[in-house]
Every structure is written in C-alpha cells, then in structure tokens.
Amino acid sequence: MDGDRLVETFVELADTLVDDFDVIDFLHMLVDRCVELLDVHAAGLLLADQQGRLQLIATSNEQVRLLELFQLQNDEGPCLDAFAAGARVGHPDLADAGERWPRFAAAATEAGFAAVDAVPMRLRSEVIGALNLFRSQVGELDATALRTATALVDIATIGLLQHRSIHHHQVLTEQLQAALNSRVIVEQAKGLIAERLGVDMDAAFAALRGHARGHNLKLGHVARGVIAGDIDTAELLGTTTTPKPVRR
C-alpha cells in the first residue's frame, strides 16, 4: 500500500467544503482509490436517497455497475445487508454463499468475483449508504486493508454529512433571507393598498392575501405586482371581504 497516496486520499476525502464540490465525482474517487490502494479488484457504492432507498451512485467499472444494479433489482446482496445492519458484511467464498444470497452470489461468481466485503457508510446511528469491495480470489480481506477501507469510508461519510449539514443550513438561511425580503415588499404593498383604497392595514393585508390565495400565487409575488403596477389594487377587493375604512 502506497503510504503517500493513502495520505493524499484522506486529505481529498476530507475536503468537501470547496465551492465546486461534486458529490458524484467525490464518490467515484472513493471507489477508484479503494481499488488502487486495497487488495480488491472492483468496488461499487450505493447511497440512500431521501426516502431511505439505496441507489447506485459509483462503481469502478461497468461489470460492477451491472452487478450492483442486479443486487438492487433483486433486493439481495451484501451492500443491502450492510446498510440495513449498519455493520460490515462479507463472504470469503461467493461460490459457497448461495444459501445467503442465492441470486446475487450466482451473478457475482459468473462475473468472475470470488469474495466480497461490504462496509456501511455510517456515523453513529445514521447510515447513508454502503461500499462493496470485490475480489477475484477466495479468502478473507486482509485485516489492514479492511481497517483502511473502513477508515476511508468513515472519512467520506463525515465529509458528506458535513457538506449536507452546511448546505441545509445555507438553504435555510437563504429561505429566511428571502422571507425577510418578501416581508419588506409586503409591508410596502400593504401601505400602497391602504392609501389607494382608503382602508386600514389589516384590510389591506387581507385583500393582498386573498388575491394571492385566490390566484394560487405567492404573497411576495402579488406584493411586487402591486408595487410595480402590474396588479390593479381595485382588483384585490374581489378576493376578500368588504374592507374596513380607515378611521380618520
């Protein structure tokens, strides 16, 4: 195992905060480096979608891509078991794994693979996917290689969850800022409506809101339309109750 290359890989897997971070490229790099650094001949990675269903995301070659798809289609195989259990799953001799994975073991053997290990992408109680490591020779995966594979997957998992958390925070921040910006526009539109229609601010807001709901539009969109003159304030009266006049 190339120590310098391994260190370089850990650094790359930890760097998920760059502006142009690409999840797909990141995970392809993970499977490629596993094949390069460990005593395995192919690798495939499945990642859970928002509904918790595993989806094929990266493989080291086309042969494994087809095998991983076969695993998903038949709902059977080491990656699915590792994901469900949150623990490493493997078999040193796939020719003997027919009882455990009858369809998958046959397909993997036919593809030229003799042994497999699946490592979950797990951080504490959260499991987000699993990595399959295939070998063409029968036998257990070397202990050092298994520890290294687990460490690589752990770093990748932390990086992905960190990126997801930061992205989620950014989305919430952007949504909050958009809401604050819209609120300013809505207040301006309320004042404009109140002045033009001679009603109080509550009635002006009711008219604005009623028009938005009646036309299936966002409140901010209607408010901008009122301010820009695209929506005639007189039209707003038809979508709400009779407005209360302003007390002079």
Automatic annotation (TrEMBL):
PROSITE patterns: ANTAR. The keyword ATP-binding does not apply. It comes from the Bacteria. Gene3D superfamilies: 3.30.450.40, Winged helix-like DNA-binding domain superfamily/Winged helix DNA-binding domain. Pfam families: ANTAR, GAF_2. Residues 166-227 form the ANTAR domain. SMART domains: ANTAR. Keywords: Kinase, Transcription, Transcription regulation, Transferase. This is Transcriptional regulator. It comes from Saccharothrix yanglingensis. The lineage of its organism: Bacteria, Bacillati, Actinomycetota, Actinomycetes, Pseudonocardiales.
